[in-house]
Design brief:
The protein is α+β, with helices and mostly antiparallel strands. The chain contains ten helices and 20 strands. Helices cover 34% and strands 30% of the residues. Strand 10 and strand 11 form a beta hairpin.
């Protein structure tokens, strides 16, 4: 029998929906709540490495993800010259195992829809536009009051509510989320036939210019620059700025830039990072995903690490008879240092670029990839 019989999951992103799916499938009563009225409404593209695909297969959504995404096995490097000259083709390590693609690009809202639908089908009770207002725990459970006045009592509360986690704040955990010094432009656009994998351009007006196919007819493209205050730009101005920056890059970028006409498809954010030292739980409340660790997307592991958190949490909960210190120790032993390695590697790659330093990029990525090829 699982260590818990009923669970509240706060946050319907990757970590939260994965937790809800796995626990509901195991017979646990799950309430899944999110402050947003529509969890699949926003976003551009997402890059999923093999270790993320491994968990998506465990969740029972791999066939649908494969149908809607775009899989590839190599990474390309191109020069920021007038031709976008190809420099290298690198075989990606299949961190999910030999029977899964190395990498998959996907439209982020589509992935969100698939995961939420799967959670509901598994038996989780979904409440959108809902936020907890307070929680109080004792030895036997957690009393939760919601903003609409309703209440619930749970054996466990899982805070999977993102970078600015309400749950973390409610627990009184002080964790500083720091800007890294980089900002990223993203756009969702049609996919030229020539784009069949991620290509990266280093140099030019941006630190990185890249793109990732997300489907037969779509991709997302991105430009990483020194962080600037872009908040005063109107949508059309944002589009014009991104088009101007993209004009320095060629090859497939020439077609991508021509297709960048919809200002609503452009967004700009700053890279941020934080890492919560163990323990990630306070009694019967535990933080996972971006609530506990977040990093810039320089090695595209944010969603993968959130999914791994959920899978390990499910595993320890369903093998234990109660919420014990031994159970939490196993959870932390399997997750904390692994997540720390990803955060530190992501930050190191960004710092090399900020410093204009020639670091051992391939060596660092190789070490992380070999680490992640072993299931958490």
């Amino acid at each position: 029998m699982p260590a818990v019989q009923n669970v509240l999951v706060v946050g319907a992103g990757a970590a939260g929906t994965a937790t809800a799916i796995l626990l509901a499938e195991a017979g646990v009563a799950v309430d899944l709540v999110d402050t947003k009225p529509d969890v699949s409404a926003l976003g551009s593209g997402i890059t999923l490495q093999g270790n993320a695909l491994r968990i998506l297969r465990q969740l029972g959504v791999w066939d649908e993800v494969r149908q809607h995404g775009f899989a590839f096995t190599t990474l390309g490097l191109r020069a920021p010259d007038a031709a976008g000259t190809p420099l290298a083709e690198i075989d990606d390590i299949r961190t999910g195992g030999p029977d899964l693609p190395a990498t998959m690009g996907m439209y982020r809202p589509e992935l969100a829809r698939i995961l939420v639908d799967r959670a509901v089908d598994a038996g989780a009770k979904l409440r959108l536009g809902t936020i907890p207002a307070s929680l109080e725990q004792d030895e036997d459970g957690v009393e939760v009051r919601f903003a609409d006045g309703s209440r619930g009592r749970y054996d466990l509360v899982v805070g999977a509510d993102g970078v600015r986690s309400w749950t973390r704040h409610e627990l009184g955990i002080l964790l500083e989320t720091c800007k890294t010094g980089m900002g990223i432009w993203r756009v969702f656009a049609p996919r030229p036939a020539s784009v069949t994998r991620t290509d990266l351009f280093y140099g030019g007006p941006c630190f990185i210019a890249g793109y990732c196919p997300t489907g037969e007819d779509s991709l997302y493209a991105y430009l990483v620059e020194a962080a600037q205050n872009r908040s005063t730009l109107a949508p059309q101005q944002s589009l014009e700025v991104m088009r101007e920056l993209a004009a320095a890059y060629h090859g497939p970028w020439d077609e991508i830039r021509k297709s960048m006409t919809d200002a609503t498809r452009v967004n700009y954010t700053w890279f941020e990072a934080h890492f919560l030292e163990a323990p990630w739980n306070r009694g019967r409340v535990v933080l996972i995903g971006d609530a506990a660790h977040t990093c810039p997307p320089t090695i595209a592991q944010g969603a993968a690490q959130a999914l791994e958190d959920a899978a390990v949490l499910y595993d320890v909960l369903t093998r234990a008879d109660a919420l014990t210190e031994e159970m939490w120790s196993e959870f932390h032993a399997r997750r904390v240092e692994r997540a720390r390695a990803v955060v530190e590697a992501s930050l190191q790659l960004g710092q090399w670029l900020l410093n204009h330093e020639q670091g051992d990029v391939s060596g660092l990525i190789g070490r992380i990839s070999h680490l992640l090829a072993e299931p958490a």
